[in-house]
Amino acid sequence: MKQSSVDGWLGTAALLCWHAAAFATATGQEKPVAASAETAVQVVEVAGLRDVDEKRYRKIFKGMEVFEENHQLAPAASLRFRLYPRSKNASFAGLRVNLSRDGTNMPIALDDDHSFRLPKSADMAKDDALVTTNKKLGTYAWRVDIRTPGLPPNTRRLGDLRLECKVDMKGAELRQMIRDPSIMALVAVSDPCTFRTFTNPFFADRPVFNVTLVSGTRRESIASDWLYGNSTRVMPDAMYELVDWRYTRDRQYIPPIADSNWPDDTLLEFDYMDDSPDANKADVAAAPVRQETERQQ
């Protein structure tokens, strides 16, 4: 499979900085500096940054509109969202997700894979509602999750992944990434998901051993360059704070979503590291296609 060597989204990362907020502390002196009238000291209180794992609903709402506009890529699928571990200490124990507006919280039901659906509400978007977890900022990597029902076990559909990319890049902005100025300019005028020079890593359900593209009689494994974050050059530790995939490299793969030679109905077959060799292929061949009803929350 031919796919251009891609570092575009990191190419100008050195231009992007996080500027630390300046905090001032007022200190008093027991002795006056000089004999003079009492000097008034102005104390400025600076609120700390929110240490809450949250996303803006208005952006997610925009992603919902992108989903509806491009639903033909995955006509049988619904729009969901999913949480993955972002740090090595991330825990899902006791996890709760809420849709919060004006001090009120609406609990959101979680599936066993830590995915969930959200209601679509223009009013909540207008009121700048938040989707929050009860964990600290940086605990989870948030992703769009679009899956056509009825697929064989351990497979994904390429059209679903194409739509996931569009919903995130053109609307929801859930992925924590280094937003290269060239990419942001591209997002403003076009769709980066259709360009081969744009890397968009996806997460598998479990650590992957191999990913095979299947379309009719055509079968092709994804090259190792497009697994485990291998397409990304080594970054300084500080730069890893700008992305959310450092601790999920063993799940990462980059499918050819921009390659029109692979149709939307192309299946990706996953061999997982905890499977025996060829276990996935045997399962897919032996098991009937599951007719799953769409998960409802």
Describe this entry's structure for a reader.
The chain is an alpha+beta fold and 297 residues long. It has one domain (50-286). It is built from seven helices and 13 strands. The chain has helices spanning 8-11, 57-69, 122-126, 158-172, 181-189, 237-240, 279-286, and strands at residues 54-56, 79-85, 97-101, 104-108, 115-116, 130-133, 140-146, 155-157, 202-203, 208-215, 218-221, 252-253, 267-272. Helix 2 (57-69) packs across helix 4. The longest helix is centred in the middle third of the chain and has 15 residues, at 158-172.
What does this entry show, briefly?
Helix content is 20%, strand content 20%.
Order of helices and strands: HEHEEEEHEEEHHEEEHEEH
Secondary-structure-derived class: alpha+beta
> Please, what is the average pLDDT?
78
Which strand order does the major sheet show? 1-6-3-4
Uncertain runs are: 1-49, 279-297
- Percent range for helical residues? 10-25%
The number of domains = 1
Largest sheet: 4 strands, antiparallel
User: Got a strand count?
Assistant: 13
Q: How large a portion of the residues is in β-strands, by DSSP E?
A: 15-25%
Shape assignment? globular
- Rg, rounded, reads 23 Å
Number of helices: 7
CA-to-CA gap between the ends? 39 Å
